[in-house]
Amino acid sequence: MSRGGRGGxxxxxxxxxxxxxxxxWLERQLNDPYVKRAKAEGYRSRAAxxxxxxxxxxxxxxxxxxxxxxxxxxxxxxxxxRRKVPKAEIVGIxxxxxxxxxxxxxxxxxxxxxxAPDTLIEALGGxxxxxxxxxxxxxxxxxxxxxxxxxxxxxxAFAFAEDVLEPGGSFVAKVFAGGADADLVxxxxxxxxxxxxxxxxxxxxxxxxxxxxAQGFKGRAEPPSE
Length: 226
What we know:
By secondary structure, the protein is of the alpha/beta class. The chain is built from seven helices and nine strands. The longest helix is centred in the C-terminal third of the chain and has 22 residues.
């Protein structure tokens, strides 16, 4: 399937039944240092390093006691939380099935369903002080539609954070190039002490993903007065 290339670079032969696009994806995976590091260090995905790097920059996990992981699959972010703050309670949710992670409660259900918020908080046993969202909508190939679908997820995650976060808590969500919508950022700034965008080094250069990091929850944002 593969052979060594120059400088240790692994090249993948295109085989019957595999598209050129999937061949490029496989070759990129085989040569990605974060993929290799994740395997060596026991993380389920390279995405674990995005949270590690965000934590190094913003101190997200310091003192965390209750954590919600939205879009948990395959579980890399929850693994990081378990290693960094092993005494923290953590619940996760995803449409996809996720193999169990010791010390974490995982639900396979739609976060957009009416029952999801209460289910998460009941399992957590109290208000979270950190909400992580690596959610992104399934793409349909139309950039504007894809952006709107993902923005709807982000807005729902933020509304959830406003409703349930402990004062002083933090909210982290994946967004795409250009960052979160200006109106949403304005709402976040009313609800949090600081709101910043960041692109961790492990996020692939060609990727359009960024993360919005909101810290110091002040309480539910009130609409501006007329």
